[in-house]
Amino acid sequence: MVSIEKAGENFIFEIEGFHKLWALKSRLTIPATHILAANLNTAKNAWVWGLRMPGTQIPGIITAGSYIVKDGTIFCDVMDVSKSIIVELHDEHYKRLVIEVEDPEKAITLLTTK
User: Fold this and answer.
1) Residues 6+ apart with CB under 8 A from 3
2) For residues 107 and 85, is the Cβ–Cβ distance under 8 A?
3) Burial of 22 (0-12, 13-18, 19+ CB in 10 A)
4) Closest by Cα among 46, 20, 29, 42 to 99
5) Model confidence, pTM
6) What is the DSSP string of 64-77?
7) What are the residue ranges of helices labelled H in the chain?
8) Which residues pair with 2 in a beta bridge?
9) Which residue has the higher pLDDT, 107 or 51?
10) Distance separating alpha carbons of residues 75 and 19, to the nearest angstrom
C-alpha cells in the first residue's frame, strides 16, 4: 500500500511495510505540476503485461515494482485492486503510477485539488 502526502510543491508517495521489498522502492517524490490526472483503476487489473524491471508479480496476489510497457515505464504497487488508483504523469521517469491506497477517493481529491 502507498500513502500520499503533499510537502510544499511535491507529492510524496511512501511505499509502506513489506511492499517496499516487493516493489524494490520505498518512496517516490513527484512535483505537483507533473501530475496530469488521478483516477480510480476502473480496469480492475492488478497485473501488467510488460517487462518487469525490477519488481514482483504473482497474478491475482500482487503486482509491485517498475514495468516497461508499450507506452513507457510505469510503477505499480497493488494487492487489492478495489483500492487502486492510476496517476498519470508527464516529464517523469514513470508515465503512470498504479498504486493501492487506503482511501481512493481521498487520494484522488488530494492529487487533483490545486
Assistant:
1) 13, 14, 16, 101, 102
2) yes
3) buried
4) 46
5) 0.92
6) EEEEEETTEEEEEE
7) 19-23, 104-112
8) 15
9) 107
10) 13
The three grid cell numbers given for residue 70, joined into one nine-digit string: 508499450
Q: CA torsion angle for 28, 34, 35, 41 (degrees, to 10)? A: -60
Rounded Cα distance, 25 and 49, in Å? 20
DSSP letters, 80-103, are: -GGGEEEEEESSSS-SEEEEE-S-
Query: CA–CA separation, 114 vs 67, rounded Å?
Result: 29
- Residue 62 cell numbers, joined: 500482487
Q: Residue with C-alpha cell 483500492? A: 83
Conformation bin of residue 8: beta by default, left when phi > 0, alpha when psi is -120 to 50:
left
pLDDT digits (tens, 9 = 90+) for 43-59: 766 566 677 788 888 88
Cβ contacts of residue 15 below 8 Å, gap of 6+?
A: 1, 2, 23, 25, 26, 27, 28, 77
